[in-house]
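user: can you give me the structure for this one chain? tokens are fine.
assistant: on it. calling the predictor now.
[tool input]
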Amino acid sequence: MAGTDASARATLGGPAVILAAPQLADNIGATARAMLNFGLTELRLVAPRDGWPNPAAAAMASGAGRVLEDAKLFPTVAAATADLHLLLATTARRRDMAKPIWSPAKAAAELRAAAARGERSGLLFGAERAGLDNDDVARAHAVVEVPANPAFASLNLAQAVLLLGYEWFRAAAPEPGARAGLDASPPATAAELDNFLGRLELALDAAGYFRPPEKKPSMRRAIRNAFVRGRLSEQEVRTLHGILSALLRRDGPEGTA
């Protein structure tokens, strides 16, 4: 649909769009176009299959080359989301994990509220063929599910980005507000939470918690989900570090307990 007006004031910003292991450069280009349609300009690529930059993406971007030029490349989803305070995963498959499921409209409202608080947020999309794996979904605070034909719910990557971008664009920004409690401590970033969970996992390993060993991956995801759902603040994560340190000092030198 035509409608580009070079003289119009552009709407820019919004949550980062993170593509995990995208396969086709054409889909990356189409995603960039969908993003710019609704003012989303921060594209993060995690290990694209055919490498980056890729000239095949430019043709499909159709005027959204600036999004591709500014795209950032990351080796892992963890690295691509480390600085974010709110991460939403998009998936059409129900997962065996306790995770809030939001509609696109609800997701847009939460993203707007986060932006009003000065928080960094992102929308995570999986590879075209298989989508997101469970470890990637476990990193998200909530799952976004698009109502669709249950017999054919899989969306093209750019279509999914377009739908979420549209909801973001049409959502009215709420009045700015501070996070209540803990002296309005800002929410913890993914990297800050990862740091704590890494220490916790080492301590649990040393204590023999992960039994039987084959269940360790699912147990790790369950622990992560429990902390991610709480949207912890920086102060809360510091408090948890202090609790863990106290327990390790009681049981022995940290790292050997």
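assistant: here you go. The two ends are 63 Å apart (CA to CA). Strands lie at 16-20, 43-46, 72-74, 86-90, 101-102, 121-125, 142-144.
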